[in-house]
Amino acid sequence: MDSLAADSRALRCWSATTGFVAGQNSIFQSLVGKTTDGGVSWTFQNFYFDGNEGGCNDVFFFDQAIGLVSGTVFDGRGALARTTDGGANWSTTFYDQAIEGVDFPTAASGFAVGSGGRILHTTDTGTSWTEQTSGSSANLHDVSFASDALRGIAVGDGGVILRTTTGGEPLPTPTATPSSTATATPRPIPTARPRPTPPPRPTPPRLTR
Fold it and tell me: What is the pTM assigned to this prediction?
């Protein structure tokens, strides 16, 4: 192993021959190493998180050009750095606490976890990230998702295991279906029939003497 790899913390194989490692070198620079011969030999690139010393915690590459690393810089902040040229240049986003595990079940959906129960989600190969609610304040160290980008598990301090089947998003609130109200058909009001008036009864003639 190259002497620059003072502290390698993450490994990701892209194919049978190509793989990447990430970590920190002996002068507190983050580094990414690459092999194209199945790990027989490695080349390393050192870089700073936007000028800040620190180290990488995890690595993920989509191909030999586009990849991301998570990390922690010297003042304790977390970082996500992205490259589109195989690691020659990096753009970095900072967070208030360490960012550790990274996973991309699909190119369109990726997740990162870190300290304080932080879970981040991206839908544009790591260009931008949004916060998800984990429901935990434990420091999370790793995350892994099934290929459907819905079923995933994150693990952290104290044996915490977080599981989702919805890609980390809350289930939609069901909309109540209004119940149909039966409309009563009015019953006709019976009309009172007038009682016939009986004809006058004839008065019998009175006999006179």
Answer: 0.78
